[in-house]
UniProtKB/TrEMBL annotation, chains A, B:
It comes from Coprobacter tertius. ATP binds at residues 114, 131-132, 158, 237. Mg(2+) 3 binds at residues 39, 84, 235. The gene is thiL. Mg(2+) 5 binds at residue 238. The keyword Cytoplasm does not apply. Residues 37-149 form the PurM-like N-terminal domain. Pathway: Cofactor biosynthesis; thiamine diphosphate biosynthesis; thiamine diphosphate from thiamine phosphate: step 1/1. This is Thiamine-monophosphate kinase. InterPro entries: PurM-like_C_sf, PurM-like_N, PurM-like_N_sf, ThiL-like. One of its GO terms (molecular function) is thiamine-phosphate kinase activity. Mg(2+) 2 binds at residues 55, 84. Catalyzes the ATP-dependent phosphorylation of thiamine-monophosphate (TMP) to form thiamine-pyrophosphate (TPP), the active form of vitamin B1.
């Protein structure tokens, strides 16, 4: 096996490191006036609103470097922030990146992380405008702030859902969670073996959803092309059930979704069977799907279903009806932020 | 001794905790359209430029909770970000706050931290628009992003210093560093004693500079009142010498400062003597002063010295002359980012 080159961070120092990692960054957006290299970045959002979101990712809590390659981690760290901006019906434009780094990491490690960050920024048209690194006592800390823009009349909040609105989702659910279970299992099986070569054939989709998720820029464009402004929208990071409850709470409504309409990939279904986990629990509560959950008026039904990858899974109700799911056998179950009543008993 | 009340964070959960910490936040700024509670904050910067800066603070690296009260830590975490915005000649308007929290911390601990944050925001007219907490395996992680505004023609970068410009500073230098040395010494002396009551009489200024620094909003106002736009500006976080080198490097100039003109408080001087540390090294390289370092054209000399607390410490030179300091005995010493040549030998 070839030894990877390892250069200690101390050889560059903090300022040298940031300079090295951020050199040759070219601005892609008009709104980026000044990026890395001063006390603050300078942006210009003329007739648009400015959106700001931030995410903190901690080693051992949010990611496990035993099986997450640093390049993928860089990509994912950026994309989960973009996803929050799309969820407001906006476009991500800039990110700032702060890293806390222990001595375990080399310059080559950070180059890989930045390669992932840069790739994500390339794909989504985002500029890296601020970088900051500092020593850390323990592991890797990643803090990313994303700034984006939206037209004033197009911003979508969580609180705009109205009775009879359709509940729509993009993509499918539960795959990222099953990907995580798979990685955790292989980690245990191969613990201690340095030539870690687990067999992942036929499960690539699950791994991709866990390790290299994408944000639904495409759905935001399809909505815009059809002049559809959802009444409420979120991205699904904590789980479909939990996010749906946020929309219902903030919009003061109830909802009904239908088990049979929740989109699930066959790889997710087959892994859930292998692991003997309830499939619908996985889809409702797995999280990290980074799909869009949104509501539109009933009158837009015929139009919204023409968007590739979008499905209607239920509707918004009067708040007195609560938030519930109709199962395949017609039973009604209350939605919970984590798991169902019936499973928690 | 009265026992402090301790409520476990688990009793509220992540969403409950954020709601609890950020309730009753009222927006102070027109540019804040939507704060905490959605996928992203929504801001509106009409005819101004938007400034963005971010800081990551890690327990054990940037702060020691043995002697830093959480309320002070909250205050300082916010202020160091405001300082970066003032350093661009802007006004801080919003912050987002991400915390990584280990089980060691209680709800009451976080309430104290937020009390400090809120106080700083009150004093400086800033809105808290985003909050995020997550579990941490080890200690406290604080990531704050500050968004501010500036008039297009008033933004000051690091790269605008020109030959013969005057080098000006606010306040005095080295006090925060001596405050830290003092706290570290008392920590060692009292290690193991639970009734930690060190004697700090006559050294209050040093402690205040370390534990509760202020950003120089007042200087930015005084400059604006006199229609002075500095040619270059930074805030002094890493040390006067290091920041001056940044300005010289980015402006492609040299500089000469005069040892006798560097403002130093008498408490700093007396502590340096007590610790047997070279006073000028402390003032040049101590860091965490959060004072402003800026350059103005020579023609503004008579005006700039009327600003309370501002002193001219030298001038910008041709790059061929390098960056140097003239000592009290007339010797010329090259400025280094950390320590001097003469001390490093």
């Amino acid at each position: 096996m070839e030894e990877k080159k390892r250069t200690e961070i101390a050889t560059l120092g903090e300022f040298g490191l940031i300079k090295h990692l951020t050199e040759n960054l070219e601005s892609k957006n008009e709104s980026t006036l000044k990026g890395v290299g001063d006390d603050a970045a300078v942006l210009e959002y003329k007739d648009k609103k400015t959106l700001v979101t931030t995410d903190l990712l901690l080693e051992g809590v949010h990611f496990d470097l035993t099986y997450v390659p640093l390049k993928h981690l860089g990509y994912k760290s950026a994309v989960v922030n973009f996803s929050d901006i799309y969820a407001m019906n906006g476009q991500p434009k800039q990110i700032t990146v702060s890293l806390g780094i222990s001595k375990r990491f080399s310059i080559e490690d950070l180059e890989e992380f930045y390669a992932g960050l840069r790739l994500a920024c390339e794909v989504y048209g985002v500029d890296i405008v601020g970088g900051d690194t500092s020593a850390s006592m323990t592991g890797l800390t990643i803090s990313i702030t994303c700034i984006g823009e939206a037209d004033t009349d197009k911003i979508v909040y969580r609180n705009g859902a109205r009775e009879n609105d359709l509940i729509c989702v993009s993509g499918d659910f539960g795959a990222a969670y099953m990907g995580l279970q798979l990685l955790e299992r292989e980690k245990k099986v191969f613990a201690g073996e340095s030539d870690f070569q687990p067999a992942f054939e036929g499960k690539e989709y699950l791994l991709e959803r866990q390790l290299k998720p994408e944000a639904r820029k495409d759905i935001i464009k399809e909505l815009s092309d059809r002049n559809i402004v959802p009444t409420a929208m979120m991205d699904v990071s904590d789980g479909l059930s939990s996010e749906l409850l946020h929309i219902c709470n903030q919009s003061h409504t109830g909802c009904r979704i239908y088990e049979e309409r929740i989109p699930i990939d066959y790889q997710t279904a087959s892994m859930a069977e292998e692991f003997n986990i309830n499939l619908v629990t996985v889809a409702l509560n797995g999280g990290e799907d980074y799909e869009l959950l949104f509501t539109v008026p009933l009158t837009l039904h015929d139009e919204v279903i023409t968007i590739p990858g979008v499905r209607v899974i239920g509707h918004i109700t009067n708040p007195s009806l609560g938030a519930g799911m109709i199962t395949r056998d017609g039973t009604e179950i209350a939605l919970k932020a984590q798991g169902w009543n019936s499973l928690n008993d």
